[in-house]
Amino acid sequence: MTDLVQIQELSKDYPVRRGLMQSRTSVVRALDRVSLGIREGECLALVGESGSGKSTLGRCVLALVDPSAGGVHFDSEDLFAMTSSARRKKRRDFQMIFQDPIGSLNPRLTVGSILAEPLEIHDMVAPSERHSRVLELLHMVGVPESAKAAYPHELSGGQRQRVAIARALASAPRFLVADEPVSALDVSLRGQIINLLLDLRERLQLTVLFIAHDLAVVEQIADRVAVMYAGQIVELASTDRVYRVPQHPYTVSLLSAVPRAERHSGRARVVLSGEPPNPAEFPEGCRFHPRCPIARERCRREEPVLVDVESEHEVSCHFQGELEW
Fold it and tell me: For the chain, which residues score pLDDT lower than 50?
């Protein structure tokens, strides 16, 4: 299977400025040399704690944020080598579903106008056909036609997120980045939205980057899982392997926090101490070692690299697989 999206040595720094003159005092590194391929037609889940760099990666992949180094190729074309006009034309092929539909939907526009806007921008259909296309999009995401005349604040949280999904689909994209699309919803609604995305992905043959902080959310939707910590990928494998034989201690800790109806008698919860490192001042060696229950002297001195431990199972750890699961 070929890669639709290729992320190559991607880094993103944000300057920290202080004082009246707003002079640059340090740099926050949100992403650090991330390389990743997203295969055409797959759903790749990107998981990790808040501040690990997941959303920054999603925004860089869609060229909403310019990286400090590295590149992104979409369908073999370098997004950051394109002119702004060429990138604007290309943008119809990749869209984003944001975490907060209240913040991402224009409160001054009706749902009908929100869905018609991308059709007009990308000149997708004739003006006379926009009304029927808007109704088609509403039907596709399970929102009644009567919502066309409503404003976002008049809808429920689940309906707003469905409208946000419909807007992302309006330009008939090939690739979607879903940035924690269910984290702002009630538990009762999360399953509905996950099932909707599963159905849409199959019907429309979409490639999806699904960003989440909770491994419990991605188990049923993802083909592969990439685990992020402190701006780097620390484990990448099929969903089955990540849940069955996790190799990185951080992945084990995330999985141990997932509630299970049936838990193996030998599995004890791995509770991490401390906090993720300051992205303006990462520790030497492995970035996870201050919190790792199996860290040794080598971990404090030598930074691990992402290597294959099994077929299509990559891990960045000196002592992978030693923390029992």
Answer: 265
Q: What pLDDT score was predicted for residue 123?
A: 87
Report the pLDDT value the prediction gives residue 267, as an integer from 0 to 100: 65
Is 57 within a domain?
A: yes
Between the CA atoms of 168, 172, 178 and 179, what dihedral angle is there, to the nearest 10 degrees? -40
Q: The domain containing residue 94 runs over which residues?
A: 3-16+26-106+164-315
Beta-sheet pairing, 307-310 with 77-78: unpaired
Asked whether 315 and 306 are in contact (CB, 8 A), the reply is: yes
pLDDT at residue 177 in the model: 97
Q: How many CA atoms lie within 13 A of 68 on its CB side?
A: 14
CA 78 to chain centroid, in Å, comes to 20
For position 268, what pLDDT does the model report?
Answer: 67
- pLDDT at position 274 is 82
Residues 6+ apart with CB under 8 A from 313: 236, 237, 238, 241, 247
Q: What is the CATH number of the domain that holds 230?
A: 3.40.50.300
pLDDT value of position 228:
97
Determine the length of the chain.
Answer: 325
